[in-house]
Amino acid sequence: MSDDALVQVRGLVKHFPITRGIVIQRKVGAVQAVDGVSFDVRRGETLGLVGETGCGKSTTARLIMRLLEPTSGEVRFDGQDITSLKGARLKAIRRDMQMIFQDPYSSLNPRKTVGATIGQPFTIHGLNSGKNERKRAVQELMETVGLNPEHYNRYPHEFSGGQRQRIGVARALALKPKLLIADEPVSALDVSIQAQVLNLLRDMQRELGLTLVFIAHDLSVVRHMCDRVAVMYLGRIAEIGPSDALYGLPRHPYTGALLAAVPVADPSARTGERQLLSGDVPSPANPPQACRFHTRCPKAQERCSIDDPVLEDKGTGTRAACHFPLSREEVAGMGVRSAR
Amino acid sequence: MSAQEPLLRVEDLRVEFSTEDGIVHAVDGITYEVAPGRTLGIVGESGSGKTVASLTTLGLTRTQGARVSGRILFEGRDLVALSEAKLRAIRGNDIAMVFQDPLSSLHPFFKVGAQLIEALRAHREVSKQQARARAIELLGLVGIPDPRRRVDEYPHEFSGGMRQRAMIAMALANEPKLLIADEPTTALDVTVQAQILALLERLQRELGMAIVIITHDLGVVAEMADDIAVMYAGRIVETASAELIFGGPEHPYTWGLLRSIPTLDGSREADLVPIPGTPPSLIQRPSGCHFHPRCPYAQPSHARIDPQLRPVPDQPSHHVACLLEVDVRRRLWAELHAGRTPEEAIAAVGVTEEPQ
Q1: Angle at B231 between CA B226 and CA B233, to 5 degrees
Q2: Orientation angle between helical segments A114-124 and A131-144, nearest 10 degrees
Q3: Which pLDDT does position A273 carry in this prediction?
Q4: In DSSP terms, which residues pair with A232 in a beta bridge?
């Protein structure tokens, strides 16, 4: 198992300090953005990270990329512990991991031509240094992602949102990375354009054998894209498993509630009363004790506020962190559209 | 549709803005109506004119130099012709609006309660104490816990979902007959979205108000709307009951929207079918059918002829603006619905020009 894991995350923790005072800053607390997360990303798979705002999915991605320093825990990439890498060795590893960001408007430098933006990774890593060589490499990339190579000298503002996201994909693919992390790559795009970018990512992944970590809040999109899915809640993984198992029979009540909340584009399937979660996600600066979900969980009992559940195999394909996992009948009663 | 007298009837509404680059035809002759207690969903992408159309209903595009023509009849009165003072008496009173981003729609300097009280006292002669009691009642009605304490908090102390609830409370303050909700859940998480949609439905049942919900999310309209209007490039290209739009859509753009979204129970293997190209500029619109450059079924004449919104022969409540023949459309949709690509559907059906 561990042999075919490209990324191994073990006990990853990231706390952001909350400070008071301007001259003398003292720490008054911590936002527990990621709080003890372990999972593998297998070679060639697409792993989805889903969850609501503040669940720590983007922070987890940034920790894997080493854009953030973890508070504790370990990230192994291709067998190597990258948690404490610095300087040249970190740079060498970064060649193999690239990221696509949510907002195609703010993630491209408006003063740089598309050619320069896509070619920038070559400059950083000293590749394709000949002028013509670079231009050819960039134009090849543009063609791969469905951009017109003649637009090499254009600026980002001359492109639509979907085309800009293609530029972001081309830039990320320039160094032929092993790992691609896409953080909400389509949520800023119009509905008709989203499918273009999703299809592109799927094609690229198949053709180049990429390993993809796909972060999104849209559960239908994640199901479409991902082989396995990890559901996060308040800095922890609530449930993880193959897409078919997780969508077909969610075991964690949070997974069930998320799936039941997805509006379905079919008026004939309009269900009368759905089981809705009450309230909002608690603050990650002061998360509930023990099971983080117990304050909103319809199945919570006394044990849930005392005894922290561990992520364990529930016998239906997924691992869930729950003392009282959902049964098939309960899932059916919640109106989960993907339930089997 | 409904035999009832419509609460709102929009007739041939046009809204244009003059810019340095030319005239933006944001809304280009749309007609629709909403009966009391009913929900109309307006679906479209950015730049389709759906937001401008509803802002104009409340006269909120007047300050931006919009040129408005057509009629907006609310209970028989034409809002386009109304003076600003008379419109102000209706706005926030008989017609209220909920916007997409609750953080920028609430004033950050004032307590939530004070803003609610202001909304109440703008239209009713009530004392501050009475207004405050009503504000607390409204916050409770929209499901804000501990409204007595929350009424004295500032917007930043509310979470995103609670801010949207507060916005809805403010919109409901004077028990409007019509609520216009512009992407009311787009900024919210999916579990909170489900709460807000359920809240809107409950309040509609209890208060009997009509709702116009504007969204790009087909799932949201499928959950909420009785009738749906699909907008593209400033026009309504298809309108019908929700059941007909989802069960037997007639416009290639509607097909494109339906086929380009992944669903929770669809095949995971099949690729999505995107709509090629990008939405057009509203300054330099395509000739003929505005959708023809992106339409896989477009014929040469579609670049010349501008289709009108016309009833579908056997479904008088179902209107569509498409130049394809009706039986060709239906055979195409049957193929698409069975999972074929547009190319396969064209090959199977054979698309021909409608005789003129």
Answers
A1: 175
A2: 120
A3: 59
A4: A237
Contact state of B246 with A265 under an 8 Å Cβ cutoff: yes
Distance of residue A220 Cα from the nearest chain B Cα, in angstroms: 5
Q: From A195, which residue of chain B is nearest by alpha-carbon distance?
A: B274
User: Among the three residues B279, B302, B334, which one is the final residue of a domain in this structure?
Assistant: B279
Same domain, B192 and B258: yes
pLDDT tops 50 at residue A68: yes
List, as ranges, residues 321-340 from A with C-beta within 8 Å of B.
336-338
Nearest chain A residue to B253, by CA: A192
> Each residue of A81-134: pLDDT tens digit?
999 888 899 999 989 999 998 888 888 999 999 999 999 999 998 888 788 999
Of A220, A224, A226, A228, which Cα lies nearest the Cα of A245? A228
Task: Name residues 29-88 of chain A within 8 A of B (Cβ).
Answer: 52-53
What is the C-alpha separation between B313 and B141, in angstroms, rounded? 45
Q: Quick one: B86 and B221 in the same domain? A: yes
B346 part of a folded domain: no
Residues of A in contact with B257 (CB under 8 A): 191-192
Do B28 and B137 lie in a common domain? no
CB A234 within 8 A of CB A292: yes
Q: How many CA atoms lie within 13 A of A177 on its CB side?
A: 31
Whole-complex ipTM: 0.84
B271/A199 touch (CB, cutoff 8 Å), yes or no:
yes
pLDDT at B356: 45
A257·B191 Cβ contact <8 A = yes
Q: Are residues B232 and B164 in the same domain?
A: no
Interface test with B, best of A52, A191, A229, A243 (most B CBs within 10 A): A191
Question: Chain B within 8 Å of A157 (Cβ-Cβ)?
Answer: no
pTM: 0.89
The pLDDT of residue A1 is 44
Which is it for strands A179-183 and A97-100: parallel, antiparallel or unpaired?
Answer: parallel
- Is B145 part of any domain? yes
Which member of A220, A258, A270 has the closest CB to residue B263?
A220
Residue B5 included in any domain: yes
Q: Name the residue range of residue B128's domain.
A: 99-173
Q: Tell me which chain A residue has its CA closest to the CA of residue B257.
A: A192
Angle between helices A161-173 and A191-208 (to 10 degrees): 20
Nearest Cα to Cα of residue B29 among B254, B306, B276: B306
- What is the band of A160 on the pLDDT scale with cuts at 50, 70, 90? confident
Domain count, chain B: 2
> Domain check: are B184 and B275 in the same one?
yes
Chain B nearest-CA distance from A111, in A, is 22
A2-96+180-187+211-265+274-333 is classed CATH 3.30.70.1150: no
Residue B25 contacts residue B234 (beta carbons within 8 Å): yes
Domain regions of chain A by residue span = 2-96+180-187+211-265+274-333
Contacting residues of B for A164, CB less than 8 Å apart: none
Question: Which residues from B are below 8 Å from A202, CB to CB?
Answer: 271
Instruction: Give the closest-approach CA distance of A244 to chain B in angstroms.
Output: 9
A258 at interface of B, judged by CB pairs closer than 8 A:
yes
Mean pLDDT (10-residue bins), chain B, 356 residues: 76 93 93 95 90 90 88 94 92 90 83 93 91 92 88 89 88 92 85 87 91 92 94 96 95 93 84 87 92 94 94 93 94 92 91 58
